[in-house]
Amino acid sequence: MAINILENIDIKKLGELLQQARQQRGMTQEDAAKIIDASRTTMVAIEKGTRRIKPAELIKLARAYGQSLSDFVRQRPVVEPFNVQFRAMYLRNEEEEEQIKPCILRLQELCQNYLELEQIMKSPLPQNYPHQYTVTGMPIEATAEAIATQERQRLGLGDSPIGRLRDILEISVGLRIFYLKMPAKYSEIYSYNEELGGCLGINAVHPEERRRWSLAHGYLHFLAHRTKPVVDFDGQYKRMPESEQLAEAFSKYFLMPTSSLLKQFNERCQANQGGKFTPTDLFTLAHYYGVSVQAMTYRLEEMKLVPSETWNKLKDRGLKVRQVQQNLNLVELPQRSDMMPIHYQHLAIEALDQGLITEGQFAKFLNVDRLEARRIAEVLREHSSGITEEAIDFDLRLTDNNNEQVAHAN
After folding, report:
1. Pairing mode, if any, of strands 197-203 and 186-193?
2. Degrees (nearest 5) of the Cα angle 328, 287, 326?
3. Are 347 and 387 in contact (CB under 8 A)?
4. Are 218 and 202 in contact (CB under 8 A)?
5. pLDDT digit string (tens) for 122-156?
């Protein structure tokens, strides 16, 4: 490594990067100091940017932190670490916390990469952020429906089903959304800071209906609890706090608007002899709005359009949702399950084609090896000219799970 790289680098930013890398690794300053055979006070000075690090020391620390030297010496934005706090009511243990921690760090790294690509291309992510809604002391159900209605109007969605929710939140709002492989019980990670704006990590292993619900749920956190990062997973509360009740209520009103749902329900009943609403109607209605059959049943129960306990009775009868959906030939919901946002992907290929990043950096931004990066680059170039909203439905980058398969194949 050329020494002049470190002589010309901003040592304060380098110190911040080293501190973040050490903390992500779960190491103390004393641990790091031992690696470079220095005192803890020296390590403190390095991280504060008051003592210039030596090349040999940086090599040792990069290796200990599991990162490459280029992660520290290339010009890269320094962002505030995601401070996702586990709430007091969070029913967790250390093992569960360790399961989700890598996902939080991964989301942070991807969002940081996103910002770096924007700076390289001088093309910041367009943001169409609404004001933060005031919800304190307001009735939950009425407030959730009012926000859902206002956001639908603001985004020009009317009361129709929302086809490509992820694309709308990425392109029309400007959220940074990544699909990450997480343990099954986790659904979503939300964070926000002034540098990055709203950031969402959605569990890629969940079915599309649940991912859409998680997107809507996370969007409410952005709308109403903007600066409060959160991790959501099944059964985490003894008593659900009002913020989570609001997010759940918002999701149902945002995805299944009352007026639209009532109209659809009545049309189906009128089409049946005797005005019945059949299980087939229930499944097709859930599919029409892109929600789970369970979520649709609960919504109809709340609206008193079907009797209470309908969902429980269907379960008691041994209802097999996926099998019924297949029997009804319900096509898969339109979806884009690639890990990276579409804007992120195109910033990366433009930076590569303009010679602003190397092929190795391109591969790292897309989290693949170089061979796979070349294949992706070709696909991106084919779609890069005159891309439209209709042209973004191609399977470009798959999820972490598929990355593992790629790695094995190579």
Report:
1. antiparallel
2. 25
3. no
4. yes
5. 999 999 999 999 999 999 999 999 999 999 999 99
